[in-house]
């Protein structure tokens, strides 16, 4: 089966800082890949390169065979790649429903009634049936992030990217967001998730990718990654973050 | 003659009132035309200044700097008295509306730019991530939020434009001030000027109050 996301020889510099040092990563359709690593390891930068929110200097990214480059086709590729941000980035002047319906309405050209209907169904799916008409400011962090997930899903993307989706949440709200993500993982949608939630990675990932200092150090299925990591740097990382 | 009959002469004011109201109508019309034209062009100028290709960005910056620097009265006189030498002869209304709009465009552009730049980067990224194009991003995401931010300064700018319409009396525009000075000459009494001043206040004080109200609400909302 051909890869849905294909990253080859990716290099990214921020001025003098070499953030990504030649990343190769291939993600199969339906696969759930969790990217972990210390802060500054380049994991967020990596997934932001997939939909070109970050420009890079060398290498290439393909989504469903389509090369992701600046130009006319970019918006089309982006519409196929959903993204959930650490800080939610909901549109504060639009209700939850309209946040979710905006993409289908404007990008897919769906009639308003149909877009609203899809948005409502998705908000029901993430457990927010009663909050459709609220503004983001009236919702808790966990609820906002669930709206953001529904907004990404509304485009029926081929790939969903999660950039530390629970890092800005109060601890008691992390669970509800992870539960929604876990349910999604079982629906067969391709997911690339940057997170520090190791328990979630262990439960949900098909593959865990460990990054450090701009390189992929090790990748393995979760049982092997957490049970018997091969690389010394992976072992040191896991030692530092996992409870003993 | 005592102060009251000199400055607050009821009979003189009553005779001058029709003229004053006529002038007020012209002032309001000139103000509205200039405000609308300045605002629409100012928004476009701000977008050019922020997102145009490099030469257009540079041109927009030069335009904005020049028209924020030139005194409005000088520009008005140029448009009305100098342009005819190259065959462009504008009516006093057109000349005044042109000068006011050109300057208001520059100020409005800076206001919109500040408003757009105040929108967090994450909003642009979220719009990009769902595949919204530039125009949709502006219309559905950025401008509605920016508009809330710029409402107070934009209203302030409207006040300035309305006040500056008085300069049009220099190019024989029959606006409120011009009518008042004529009525004053006719009656040999300054009461019409007082009347005009009061009419300007009646027009602008509520707007000034409105800006205060917007700012208070904004402080409330951002606390």
Write the topology of this structure:
The complex is a heterodimer of chains A (244) and B (223).
Chain A (H helix, E strand, L loop, with lengths): L4 E10 L2 E11 L4 E5 L6 H8 L7 E6 L2 E2 L6 H6 L1 E4 L11 H11 L5 H14 L15 H13 L5 E5 L7 H15 L4 E5 L3 H7 L2 E6 L2 E6 L1 H6 L4 H10 L3
Parallel strand pairs in A: 3-8, 3-9, 6-7, 7-8
Antiparallel strand pairs in A: 1-2, 1-4, 4-5, 9-10
Chain B lengths: L2 H5 L2 H42 L2 H16 L2 H11 L9 H26 L3 H9 L4 H31 L11 H12 L3 H32 L1
Helix pairs in contact in B: 2-3, 2-5, 2-7, 2-8, 2-9, 3-5, 4-5, 5-7, 7-9, 8-9
Explain what you see.
The complex is a heterodimer of chains A (244) and B (223). Chain A is α/β, with parallel strands linked by helices. Chain A is built from 9 helices and 10 strands. In chain A, the strands form 2 sheets. A 6-stranded mixed β-sheet of chain A has the order 6-7-8-3-9-10, with helices on both faces. In chain A, strands 2-1-4-5 form a 4-stranded antiparallel β-sheet, with helices on one face. Chain A starts with a strand and ends with a helix. Chain B is flat, with a radius of gyration of 21 Å. In chain B, helix 4 (72-82) crosses helix 5 (92-117), helix 7 (134-164) runs antiparallel to helix 9 (191-222) and helix 8 (176-187) runs antiparallel to helix 9 (191-222). With 223 residues, chain B is an all-alpha fold. Chain B has helices at residues 3-7, 10-51, 54-69, 72-82, 92-117, 121-129, 134-164, 176-187, 191-222. Helix content of chain B is 83%, strand content 0%. The interface between A and B is medium-sized, with 27 and 18 residues.
């Amino acid at each position: 089966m051909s890869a849905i996301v294909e990253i080859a020889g990716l290099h990214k510099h921020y001025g003098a800082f070499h953030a990504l040092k030649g990343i190769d990563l291939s993600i199969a359709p339906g696969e759930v890949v969790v990217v972990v690593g210390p802060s500054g390891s380049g994991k967020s930068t990596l997934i932001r390169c997939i939909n070109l929110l970050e420009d890079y200097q060398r290498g290439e990214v393909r989504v469903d065979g389509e090369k992701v480059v600046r130009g006319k086709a970019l918006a089309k590729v982006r519409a196929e790649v959903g993204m959930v941000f650490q800080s939610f980035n909901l549109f504060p002047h639009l209700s939850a429903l309209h946040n979710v319906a905006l993409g289908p309405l404007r990008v897919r050209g769906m009639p308003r009634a149909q877009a609203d209907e899809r948005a409502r169904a998705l908000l029901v799916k993430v457990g927010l049936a009663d909050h459709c008409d609220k503004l983001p400011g009236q919702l808790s962090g966990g609820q906002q992030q669930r709206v953001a997930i529904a907004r990404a899903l509304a485009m029926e993307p081929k790939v969903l990217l999660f950039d530390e989706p629970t890092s800005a949440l109060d601890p008691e709200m992390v669970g509800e967001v992870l539960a929604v993500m876990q349910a999604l993982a079982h629906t067969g949608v391709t997911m690339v998730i940057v997170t520090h939630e190791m328990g979630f990675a262990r439960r949900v990932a098909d593959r865990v990718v460990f990054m450090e200092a701009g390189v992929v150090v090790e990748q393995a299925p979760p049982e092997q990654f957490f049970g018997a990591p091969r690389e010394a740097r992976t072992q040191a990382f896991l030692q530092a973050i996992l409870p003993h | 003659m005592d102060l009251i009959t000199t400055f607050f002469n009821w009979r003189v004011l009553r005779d001058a009132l029709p003229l004053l109201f006529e002038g007020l109508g012209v002032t309001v019309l000139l103000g509205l035309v200039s405000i609308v034209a300045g605002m629409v062009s100012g928004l476009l100028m701000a977008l050019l200044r922020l997102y145009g290709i490099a030469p257009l960005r540079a041109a927009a910056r030069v335009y904005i700097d020049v028209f924020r620097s030139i005194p409005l009265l000088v520009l008005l006189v140029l448009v009305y008295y100098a342009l005819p030498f190259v065959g462009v002869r504008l009516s006093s209304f057109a000349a005044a509306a042109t000068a006011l709009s050109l300057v208001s465009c520059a100020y409005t552009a800076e206001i919109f730019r500040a408003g757009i730049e105040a929108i967090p980067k994450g909003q642009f990224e979220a719009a990009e991530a769902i595949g919204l194009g530039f125009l949709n991003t502006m219309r559905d995401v950025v401008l509605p939020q920016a508009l809330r931010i710029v409402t107070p300064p934009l209203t302030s700018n409207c006040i300035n434009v309305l006040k500056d319409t008085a300069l049009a009396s220099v190019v024989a525009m029959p606006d409120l001030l011009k009518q008042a000075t004529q009525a004053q000459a006719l009656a040999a009494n300054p009461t019409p000027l007082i009347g005009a001043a009061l009419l300007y206040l009646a027009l602008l004080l509520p707007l000034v109050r409105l800006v205060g109200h917007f700012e208070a609400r904004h402080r409330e909302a951002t606390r």
